[in-house]
Amino acid sequence: MACMAFPEGFVYGGATAAYQCEGETLTHGKGKVAWDDFLAKQGRFSADPASDFYHQYPVDLDLCERFGINGIRISIAWSRIFPAGVGEPNPEGVAFYHRLFAACHEHGVEPFVTLHHFDTPAALFDQGDFLNRATIDAFVDYARFCFAEYADEVTYWFTFNEIWAVATNTYIEGTFPGGQQANLTLAFQCMHNMMLAHAKAVVAYKEAGYTGKIGVVQSLEGKYPFDENDAGDIQAAKNEDVLQNQFILDATFRGDYAADTMEVVDRLVAIAGGSLDIRDDDLAIMRQAARLNDNLGINYYQSRFLKAYDGENDLHHNGTGEKGTDRFRLKGVGERVNKPGIPTTDWDWIIYPEGLFDLLVRIRLQYPNYKQIFITENGMGYKDEFKDGYIDDGPRIDYVREHLMAVLRAVEAGVNVGGYFLWSLMDMFSWTNGYNKRYGFFYVDFETQRRYPKASAYWFKRIAETGRLE
Ligand code: BGP
After folding, report:
1. Domains: count for the chain
2. What CATH number did the domain enclosing 16 receive?
3. How far is the CA of 391 from the centre of ligand 1 (A)?
C-alpha cells in the first residue's frame, strides 16, 4: 500500500467531553445540568465517576505524551464555572481548568477547548434551553469570562459541540433530556439560536483582540439517495442534508440561509407546524461572524442512505448495541435504510469513509471562505474485550485507517485539514448508551479507574511519530 504523509504541523489528537469523563458531577461547587436528574430517573447508568478525569487527568495526559498524542479536545463544564449558568463564578471550578490546561502544556499536549458539550446548566435548561433567547446572552457572558480567564492557556476555542445533535436528540429523536419527537420546527429554531450564540461569541472574541483561533464543531453526515435514479429518494437525501448539514453550514460560513436551503426548511416546517423566528439583526451578526471563524470542527462517524417516506413517524434509538434495532422514519422527510454490502456497527452506525471525503471536498467548493478544518471526532463504538490487559481492537484500527485515508485524499484534493481527534481519548460515558459502547485508545476499567493501551493506541503512536499512514 502506498505510504501517505500528513501535512506539516498536523495534530494527532484524542477527544473528551466534560460530562462524559470528569465525574464529580455535583461536587466541588458544580451546578446541576439536566442530565443529572434525567439519568437518575432513567436508572440505567450514571455519569459518576465516569472515567474520573477530574482526578485522573495527569494519568491521561501522561499517556498522551507517551503515545505521541499532541492534541486533546476538552470541554469546560459551564456549570462548574457558573453553577446557575449566570451570576458569581465558582472559584474551585475556575481553578480546576487552570490546573488542567497547565498539565496539558507540561505534557506537550495542545488543548482544543469547547465551551458547551451538551451540558447547559439546569437553571437555564429549565427555562427553555437555547429556545429561550436569555440563554444566548448567558452563554456569551460565560464565553467572555472563559476567554479572559484562560487567554494565556488556550489558543484553540470552539463555541459548541454538535448543534445538530442537540437539536435532533432533543426535538426529533427525543433521546436527550426534555426530549420530544419529530418537532422539526423546534429543531431548526434551536439550531438557529445556537448558531446566533456562536456568532455573538466569535464576534466578542475577535473584538476583544485575542490572538487565538475560534470556531464551532458540527456533526456532519453524507446523505445519499438509496436509489440514485429515484426522484423521491433524491429528495429525501436532500431533505436530510439540509436538516443536518446545510442549514448549519450556511449559518457558519454565510451567516444567512441560501434560497435552496430555505426552500427545504420552509417545506419541513410547514409539515411540522408553527413558524421560525429568524430576525434581520440575527443575520447581521451571523454574517459578521461568518467572516471571522478560524476553523470548523467536523465530527464524522457515518453517512446515511435515504428512501422517500410518507408514513407515520417511527423512531427507535438503538442504545443497547443490539444490531438491527434502529429505526428512523420521518413523515415527509425520509427513511434511513442500510445499503447492502456496507458494514454497520453493533449500534447500526453505517461505516462509510467515502462520506467524509465527500463532505470535506464539498465544504471547500460550497464554502470557499472556510479557513481550516479539524476532524474533531471520529471513531468506532465497539464492545472491546479485555484479555489480561490486552485489548485487540482490530475493527477500530481498520475504521480509523480508512477514515484517515479519506482525510489524506481530501488533503490531496486541496482541503486544508489541520488535525484528527479520535473519539475518544480513553473510554468514557456515552450519553444514551452507557458504558459498554467503548471508543477509546485507552481502555478504562471503570471499577479501578486503571487505564490500558489498546492495540489501536500502539498503532496510532506509529502514525503520530512518523507522520505517515502506512
Ligand atoms: C458525538 C458526541 C460525543 C460522543 C460521540 C459518540 O455525537 O459529541 O459526545 O458521545 O458522539 O456518540 P455515542 O456516545 O452516542 O455513541
Report:
1. 1
2. 3.20.20.80
3. 21
